[in-house]
Design a protein that fits this description.
heterodimer, A: alpha/beta, seven-stranded mixed β-sheet, 29 helices, 12 strands, B: mainly beta, SH3 type barrels, six-stranded antiparallel β-sheet, 2 helices, 39% strand, globular
């Protein structure tokens, strides 16, 4: 065990915070701030591509680290979770305050939003309680200027006694000065006289009493006053903190931590102290101080600076238009995606089949065996070609558009509009946001559920995330909708009908999300919705360049890469299954024959069920598998047009009922392999992973069964 | 109604209220106060969501939406419907 000898700071960094430093010369910098302040823009602008993300050890909280070089010194930048405070007890706040307190960053940079500085100063003042080495970065200065808000940075720096730098991180303005200031503070080249908050007499007495107590027992350089404030706010965590301090050498091993804990508690729970009043006083003092500072440094030239935001909100969240506008926006995005993807999809397909011609010639020229040509060209290559030409264009259009909405600040408005439905389903309001994320990729959606504090509601959000179709499933929905539902129409109208069909599927997905959330809340995940606050940040001018880079690199290529990794081996295996015959039938046929009665029962056929099962690694390959198995050749169809696909499907007995059932089953079936793995990772539980598999699958089977049987009973199909 | 204390969720849209009392306890109380909702803070009731709940409020220069369960635990004094005593 540890404790007798002091554990060096390097170990603390590594063990508790998962931060590795390469050399003792590297300087560690913490980046803190409220949510929605452009903190990640500052982080990205400073570190560029030198960054990596992961988790805080043992916690499902994102941990992003990056590095930059300034004046021949290497700085490691640790991006702390965005929080409003450091005093409450959420995991994010715990991570942030522990890092600033025990991670011993040389400088803590606090990012604040120039357009709502008052609230941002609350966090800053709390951080000044922990450390003196703070640089305040007032970001979004351009936005403030546009709104007629003038911030007196010089005066602010004078009042706070720390360096204050104004920046527009997205235009990289002010970052050099920020780096200079961080250097000065980190290397101790600057005299800092940080402002300290003074609490009232009663609070002060308690603080001093606890500090005296700690001074006697706790050694090493630690901020006693901050520990005392922390104890007052989280009296239930005193023992845990003491244990931590002992483990990491801040307390001698022979100290009796139970005794110290009790002594601190004695101070806190003395009979004439009302703890809640003490806590209130600490928060109130800080809030009032922020207000006081704010009034001295701000000059609002335009009293109605947020009038435009209010006007936009009037429309986007209006009682009459709020939800219709939301649906229309979604429809427009899908329509642009469907319409815009057609041409590049065809072009890509043509390109791939042009290349295939050369591959054929190559195989012929070198007299390579036919089976090798089958496996590599008809199996692997064609599957890859399909996946790329079908998936890349819609994703390259959809993700930037979706990121645009995100960047504009529209997503919190969606949560605002839909919250009541989620409340009635006993779910968390932020589930609307994680659900939206699922449209891109369900695995990403599951990870985003971390923004939900309450474990019960987070589980609900994770389990139900799969009920919104992801980008891998949209191509199935879109192509089938185009063929069977828009089929009777021509040109532009066809894609309008297809869009409407897809929107309907999405709305159905949302409704099922709510119903299942409610059922979960009433059965295995009983509980009432927890309280939450939802900030509606100002609308922001989107950063087109960053949107393109972020959505293409982080989302499109990431998802495509994953799909390709899965599709290549899958293409090989499926080709083998389709071309290895036993008793005159391929393995695929045998499998499909076994599944056929079940498939028919729920409005589909054995091949479709087989395709969904084999598509477990990634939904993107469901259609290619289906096409491959329908083709007598056992290789994939040449992608001349949707019309070819339509004829193939009709030849294989598809009706509009099959189309509807396939669309429903696309929406309601087990999550893809990646999502399941992610769920396992996030919940740390096989049980919840299994449930996440079963719940959508069973509901899909039930819904398709009902639809198929009723239509048949009524004689429609 | 002027001068009386009302729960924040009943503060009519467009009206100003001064926080006089927070009933919530524990972490809920803390979360509200961390947003700057302390005694004597001025809040404006901005808009209802399409289904009437949650309601968005302006609190210290930011817009925060609260569900009615939450907002009903904050008692405010209505001051004025057209602004004025903002600071």
């Amino acid at each position: 065990m540890i404790a007798t000898e002091q554990i060096s700071n390097k170990n603390i960094l590594d063990q508790i915070f998962g931060i590795q430093i390469n050399s003792p010369d590297e300087i560690i910098i913490a980046l803190a701030g409220n949510p929605n302040t452009g903190k990640s823009t500052v982080f990205n602008s400073l570190t560029g591509l030198n960054q990596h993300t992961g988790n805080w050890p043992g916690k499902t909280v994102n941990n992003a680290q990056g590095s930059y070089n300034h004046n021949n010194k290497n700085y490691i930048l640790v991006d702390l979770p965005g929080t409003y405070s450091l005093l409450a007890n959420s995991i994010e706040e715990e991570v942030a305050r522990d890092f600033i307190c025990y991670g011993d960053p040389k400088t803590t940079v606090v990012i604040a939003d120039a357009t709502c500085l008052e609230r941002n100063l609350i966090l800053l003042l709390q951080i000044l309680e922990i450390t003196d080495n703070v640089v305040l970065c007032v970001n979004l200065m351009d936005e403030a200027q546009r709104k007629g808000i003038e911030v007196d940075l010089v005066q602010l720096s004078k009042i706070l006694g720390i360096p204050v730098v104004g920046t527009n991180a997205r235009d990289k303005i002010g970052l050099d000065k920020l780096k200079d200031m961080v250097e000065m503070v980190s290397l101790g080249k600057m005299d800092l006289k940080p402002m300290k908050v003074t609490y009232n007499e009663d609070v002060n007495k308690i603080l001093i009493n606890i500090e005296k107590k700690l001074e006697k027992n706790v050694k090493k350089n630690i901020n006693y006053r901050w520990l005392a404030i922390n104890f007052i706010n989280n009296p239930m965590n005193i023992h845990e903190t003491m244990k931590f301090l002992q483990e990491y050498g801040y307390l001698n091993e022979d100290e009796n931590i139970e005794k110290i804990t009790d002594e601190v508690k004695d101070i806190l729970f003395e009979k004439n102290i009302i703890l809640q009043d003490v806590q209130d006083n600490i928060v109130s003092t800080i809030v009032k101080k922020s207000e006081e500072i704010y009034k001295q440094i701000i000059d609002i030239k335009n009293k109605n600076y947020n009038k435009i935001d209010r006007k936009i909100d009037d429309i986007l969240t209006s009682k009459t238009f709020g939800i219709p506008i939301m649906l229309s926006l979604l429809a427009v995005i899908f329509w642009i995606t469907i319409q815009g993807a057609n041409y590049p999809s065809d072009a890509l397909a043509n390109l791939f089949f042009y290349i295939e011609g050369y591959l054929d010639k190559f195989f012929l020229h070198y007299r390579l065996p036919l089976w090798l040509h089958g496996i590599l060209v008809l199996g692997v290559y064609r599957t890859l070609a399909w996946v790329i030409s079908v998936m890349l264009p819609p994703m390259a259009i959809f993700f930037p558009l979706f990121t645009l909405l995100e960047d504009l600040g529209y997503l919190p408005r969606i949560a605002f509009n839909l919250d009541n439905f989620f409340k009635k389903a006993c779910a968390h309001g932020k589930q609307a946001l994680t659900m939206c994320m699922g449209f891109g990729c369900n695995a990403a959606g599951v990870i985003s559920c971390r923004i939900i504090d309450s474990p019960r509601e987070r589980l609900i959000a994770i389990i139900t995330n799969n009920f919104v179709p992801c980008n891998g499933r949209f191509p199935i929905l879109i192509s089938i909708a185009m063929i069977f539902l828009g089929g009777g129409f021509t040109g532009g109208f066809q894609s309008v009908i297809a869009t409407l069909a897809v929107i309907n599927v999405i709305v159905l997905g949302v409704i099922i999300t709510l119903i299942v959330s409610k059922i979960l809340s009433k059965t295995i995940l009983k509980g009432l919705p927890s309280s939450f606050t939802l900030e509606l940040p100002p609308y922001r001018k989107p950063q087109i360049g960053r949107i393109l880079i972020r959505s293409i690199l982080d989302r499109t290529l990431f998802v495509l890469g994953r799909a390709v990794m899965v599709a290549a081996p899958a293409g090989l295996i499926i080709w083998l299954m389709a071309n290895t015959t036993i008793n005159g039938n391929s393995i695929l046929d045998h499998g499909a024959n076994i599944l056929n009665p079940f498939g028919k029962l729920i409005g589909m056929d054995g091949y479709i069920i087989m395709a969904f099962l084999l598509g477990l690694p990634a939904n993107e390959i469901v259609i290619p598998i289906l096409v491959m198995s329908y083709m007598s050749t056992g290789a994939m169809l040449e992608l001349e047009s949707l019309e070819a696909l339509r004829l193939l499907l009709i030849d294989n007995g598809w009706t509009w009922l099959t189309a509807v059932c396939v669309m429903i089953f696309t929406l309601l079936h087990f999550p893809c392999g990646t999502t399941l793995l992610t769920i396992k990772k996030e919940t740390q539980s096989l049980k919840w992973t299994l449930l996440s598999f079963l719940i959508p699958t069973v509901s899909g089977i039930i819904v398709c069964f009902i639809i198929a049987q009723t239509t048949r009973l009524l004689g429609f199909a | 109604m002027k001068g009386e204390l009302v729960p924040l969720n009943l503060l009519p849209i467009g009206n100003f209220g001064i926080v006089k009392h927070i009933i919530s306890k524990g972490s809920n109380r803390r979360r509200l106060m961390d947003l700057g909702l302390i005694t004597d803070t001025t809040v404006v009731s901005l808009r209802k969501s399409p289904s009437g709940d949650p309601i968005a409020y302006e609190i210290r220069g930011t817009v925060i939406a609260l569900r009615s369960e939450e907002a009903s635990n904050i008692l405010v004094k209505i001051i004025n419907s057209e602004g004025g005593n903002l600071l």
